[in-house]
Structure formats: structure tokens, C-alpha cells
Design a protein that fits this description.
By secondary structure, the chain is α/β, with parallel strands linked by helices. The protein has two domains: about 5-175, 3-Layer(aba) Sandwich (Rossmann fold), CATH 3.40.50.720; about 180-270, Orthogonal Bundle (6-phosphogluconate dehydrogenase C-terminal fold). Helix content is about 50%, strand content about 15%. The protein has helices spanning about 15-30, 40-50, 60-65, 80-85, 105-110, 155-170, 180-205, 210-215, 225-230, 235-245, 245-265, 270-290, and strands at about 5-10, 30-35, 55, 70, 95-100, 120, 125, 145-150, 175. The strands form two sheets. Strands 3-2-1-4-5-6 form a six-stranded parallel sheet. Strands 7-8-9 form a three-stranded mixed sheet, covered by helices on one side. The longest helix has 28 residues, at about 180-205. Bound molecules: NADP nicotinamide-adenine-dinucleotide phosphate. NADP nicotinamide-adenine-dinucleotide phosphate (NAP) binds next to helix 1 and helix 10. It catalyses: prephenate + NAD(+) = 3-(4-hydroxyphenyl)pyruvate + CO2 + NADH.
Length: about 300
């Protein structure tokens, strides 16, 4: 594993992702100094209480002044605003990156604002939970998770190598991708599943003949697994939907066609079609487990009541 080191890293946004970065940077000794900036006084005060950085400020321009690496970890809809705030204060030669879940829109918002003498390398760690804020982060979040960089044409290879080394030191596996391809891939593996979860949980909470207490009481039958995704941060997911609109609409329309075909199989009692689909999907899960992206334990490896923790 190649280890890199920065004099100063500025973290703009200190929620789940920003605070996980702060923790792993400190643990792995990836910087001499961590400067933290966030929008609200309350979050900044909490970051300070948790001892996540070395310097704290509400002024993002002030935060980036001497930073060799700037990591923007805010909802994607706010990326342009942050780029405008920091642009004039960036140190020449600094690497500026982000962690946003959409890439085409973040590039369109940030690139025009940033000066030519910094290395802007958009990124996206495919690691997260349904929790948010500085308390939610943890240093192991990125271990064995993919981080996708979507560098623009002409980006300095040394800067890409340095950022790659940084994410590797955080425990990530690295890939590079074209930004629009990234957005299509993420639309199917992340954005669509979240929308389906938001929709099914919304439908269940709207059903009049099934009471809320029944939904909760019998949730372990399958519903519960959707509620984890549907508990994800509303601001983050609103922004993802608004900023990856085309790819999400394309995947939603394919999903709707396939759902209509499934509906037909159920209506006409086409057991062979149902069996074939369910066999194919089971193999997909096997592949995910074999790739180390899920544990091979029943019920998502959940601990049962009374079972000792390992
Ligand atoms: P989070 O826990 O909700 O934290 C968001 C941070 O951004 C907070 O510091 C917040 O500041 C700040 N912020 C919010 N709105 C802002 C605005 N309008 N202007 C400036 N700062 C603002 O979010 P997160 O989960 O870390 O997500 C951050 C980014 O990572 C998002 O772009 C998301 O798409 C991406 N991402 C998330 C996950 C995940 O699973 N959560 C995974 C991969 C990538 P205050 O608290 O001070 O208001």
C-alpha cells in the first residue's frame, strides 16, 4: 500500500464522510494538520468536541489557505457554492477533490469556478451508512470499499497518483471512470435502490387497511431491509435525485418495464418466468458475496437477541 503525506488537509463539510476522513487521516498520520470548516456553528462545535481536527473555522476560504489537499464533503447541490467561496484562496498546486455521489453535475458546478493552477480531481467513495453528521463517522468506513475518481482530460498524473495513494491509505480500492459513465452506474447500483426503498416505505406508511403497528411488528419479513435505505439523509438524496436526473429517469423507466413484466407473470401464473428471474437474481447476490462486498451470513449477518457479540 503506497502511503502519502500532506502538510495540511482542509475538510469542507464534516458530516458522515468528512468526519470519517478526519478520523482516518489522524489514525494513519496522513497530514500534519487538519483544518475543518462547516456551515453551522453547531456542527463546528461538535467537530471540535470530538477532536476531529487541529483548526476549526466557519469560513471555508480561510480553511483552504495553506492546504495541499482540499476535500469537499457537502450535499452535491452545494458544490458550486463551495467552489465559489474557496476559489480565490486556494494554494497554487493544491489538489481539490470532492466525495459527491454524482459526478457530471459536481464537475459542471465546480470546474468553472476553480483556478487553473490547482488540480481538480472529482471523486466518490462508495462507502456510507444511513446516518449523518460528525458523530456518525468512523475511521474504518472506507476499508475494502471502492473509491471512484473521475479525472478530467489533461489532469496531472502525479496529482492523480497522490490522491490515489491517499484513498488507498484510507483503505479504499481505486477505480477511475468517465464522469457520465459513473453517473449511469451509480444510478442503477445506488440511486435506484434508494428510490425504490423510499417508495415502498412511503407506500406502506400510506396503506389504510394495514396499521402502522402491524408494519413495524411484522417488518422482519422483508420490509425492514428497505427501511435502512429509506432512512438515509433527505437533503443528500434530494440533491442526488436533482443532480443525476437523466440517468435516474433512464434506469427508472427500465425498472418500470421490468416491473410490468413481473406483474404480468404473477397475473398469468407464469411460474417458470418467476422461477427463472429469482434464480438469476440469487446468482447476483452470490457474486456480491464472492467479491467481498457483503458477508455470507443469513439475515445480513444481523445479531440475534441473546446472541453474544463477536
Ligand atoms: P452529512 O453527514 O449530512 O454532512 C453534510 C456536511 O455538509 C455537513 O458538514 C453540513 O454542514 C455540510 N452542508 C450541508 N449543506 C450545506 C450547504 N448548503 N453549504 C455548505 N455546507 C453544507 O453528509 P454526508 O453523508 O457526509 O455526505 C456528504 C457528501 O458525501 C454528499 O455529497 C454525498 O452525496 C456524499 N456521499 C455520501 C455517502 C453516504 O452514504 N452518506 C456515501 C458516499 C458519498 P452543517 O452540518 O454545518 O450544516
Amino acid at each position: 500500500m503506497s502511503k502519502v503525506h500532506f502538510d495540511t488537509i482542509a475538510l469542507i463539510g464534516i458530516g458522515l464522510i468528512g468526519s470519517s476522513l478526519a478520523r482516518v487521516i489522524k489514525r494513519e498520520g496522513l497530514a500534519d494538520k487538519i483544518v475543518i470548516s462547516t456551515r453551522s456553528e453547531a456542527t463546528l462545535a461538535r467537530a471540535k468536541e470530538l477532536g476531529l481536527g487541529d483548526r476549526y473555522t466557519l469560513d471555508s476560504a480561510e480553511a483552504v489557505k495553506n492546504a495541499d489537499l482540499v476535500i469537499v464533503s457537502v450535499p452535491v447541490g452545494s458544490s458550486g457554492e463551495i467552489a465559489r467561496q474557496i476559489a480565490a484562496s486556494l494554494k497554487p498546486g493544491a489538489i481539490v477533490t470532492d466525495v459527491g455521489s454524482t459526478k457530471g453535475s459536481v464537475i459542471a458546478q465546480m470546474q468553472p469556478e476553480l483556478p487553473a493552477n490547482v488540480h481538480f480531481i472529482p471523486g466518490h467513495p462508495l462507502a456510507g451508512t444511513e446516518y449523518s453528521g460528525p458523530d456518525a463517522g468512523f475511521a474504518d468506513l472506507f476499508i475494502n470499499r471502492w473509491c471512484i475518481l473521475t479525472p478530467l482530460d489533461g489532469t496531472d498524473p502525479d496529482a492523480i497518483a497522490k490522491l490515489t495513494g491517499f484513498w488507498e491509505a484510507c483503505g479504499s480500492r481505486l477505480d477511475t471512470m468517465d464522469p457520465l459513465h459513473h453517473d449511469r452506474v451509480l444510478a442503477i447500483v445506488s440511486h435506484l435502490p434508494h428510490l425504490i426503498a423510499y417508495n415502498i416505505v412511503g407506500t406502506a406508511s400510506d396503506l389504510e387497511e394495514v396499521t402502522n403497528s402491524e408494519v413495524i411488528k411484522y417488518s422482519a419479513s422483508g420490509f425492514r431491509d428497505f427501511t435502512r435505505l429509506a432512512a438515509s439523509d433527505p437533503t443528500m438524496w434530494r440533491d442526488v435525485c436533482l443532480h443525476n436526473k437523466d440517468a435516474i429517469l433512464e434506469m427508472l423507466s427500465r425498472f418500470s418495464e421490468d416491473l410490468a413484466s413481473l406483474q404480468r407473470s404473477v397475473r398469468w401464473g407464469d411460474g417458470d418466468a418467476l422461477f427463472d428471474l429469482f434464480t438469476r437474481t440469487r446468482a447476483v447476490r452470490r457474486g456480491i458475496i464472492d467479491a467481498g462486498q457483503e458477508v455470507d451470513a443469513p439475515d445480513f449477518g444481523r445479531q440475534k437477541a441473546g446472541q453474544p457479540s463477536k
